[in-house]
Predict the 3D structure of the following.
Amino acid sequence: MSPLFTPLKPVAPALRTVLGIACFVLFFLGWGIATYGGFVKPLFLASPGDTLTAGIALFREFGFAEDIAVTVWRVFAGFAMAAALAVPLGILMGAFKPVEAFFEAFVSFARYLPASAFIPLLILWAGVGELQKILVIFIGSVFQLVIMVTVIVSGIRTDLVEAAYTLGAKRDGVVLRVLLPASAPQIFEALRLVLGWAWTYVIVAELVGASRGIGHMIIDAQRFLDTGQMIFGIFIIGVIGLITDLLFRALNARLFPWAKGR
Amino acid sequence: MSKLSIRNVEKIFPGRNSTAPTRALVPTSLEVADNDFITILGPSGCGKSTLLRIVAGLETPSAGEVLLEGKAVSGPGPDRGMVFQSYTLFPWLTVRDNVCFGLRERGLPRAEQLAIADHFLAQVGLKGFENHHPAQLSGGMQQRTALARALANDPKMLLLDEPFGALDHQTRELMQELLLGIWEADRKTVMFVTHDIDEAIFMASRVVVMSARPGRIKCDIPIELPHPRSYKVKTTPEFAAYKERLTEEIRVETIKAVTMER
């Protein structure tokens, strides 16, 4: 067996970068062959070149930058609301078992309610404005996040908590100065994951009753059978996702250097 | 009056899933005098850690009581400093802030915290490592920090649960000398749990041997080796005589424990 494929063996950083880029190269290569080679009709799949042209036109003529800004704002607003509720609640549920017993069954139930199914109801309640879009993201993220934070806090090493008690910490000290800092890096990681899911909800929310946003642009492009614009819109979401992911990772490494490699 | 009185303390762990309850400790009594260094020696599963955890207040006895300076122990507190077998330094705090933890919980001014922390860090030989994080330290250094952290609270008693159990043999012997040196200087009352016979004799003024399931005290042997003791005491005939006797006592118990497991 090749030494490269020994289970769990780390790969050299340079090779890691090369392999990561190679996947993108192969992706574009396959896409190019399928479209330029005439294997797929342009009506169904635009070529990389056409997609790029459509993208430039979107920015130049259709104010796509504003669409992006609107969508990013919706994602972060809904996500921030979800985090503001879910993180404290999850910490309380993880730390205090009666609180967990009270909320756990309900949250587990609510977690399975698809956020997109709430769209008609939310339109009824909140109209077709910003609030409705933000609430879709909020509903989609908040319950997942509560469960994840609860599990993280519940899993903090009990010997750290015991050590704190023998050093004279009381209940509040244990929660604020042991459970909270101990779980912070993992909570941060959970936020990063859930933010990715929030992006999928925003597009769904924008497919219905929106006048701006990336999702709205994609629906608009569908009317004109402009696959180049559609693909470019989807592509931009991926790029924004990749950037936020990298930012989150960098921030995590900066905020919690002590948790490195754990 | 004794420093610590353990009076008919019993511990029964309830059975799970219709298994029979486990009797970890038959009613046990033990008096510890002020300035004593007691080691509790026994095979694994003899309830020695359970007894120590009851004294620490981390476990509640099924019957009986523990009195520290005549006052009943009802939970963990800073008057009984503890060092665990596992590494329990708070990974997000520096070495110095780990030692300050208990002082901070008590609300001491920062300047005072730092003065105390630096004093005890110097005592355990960690001058120059104040700003390191636990992950940057070796196992021996982590346990030295944990010792300094427990001592910084100026506890009435020091409880140690196989604190050097995870260290290599050489480091372990140096740690024993360090702890013994600190004890010879301050004469703080110590209760030290171990399964290592040499370790038990070398540091102790009394060795309490515990028997296997259910745990009970089998014998209580005063160690009359002169202080200050150097590592050289381990090769004297007196030391060998203690070792021979304790080896016999422990061997019988270990055989019992092993046959009971079948």
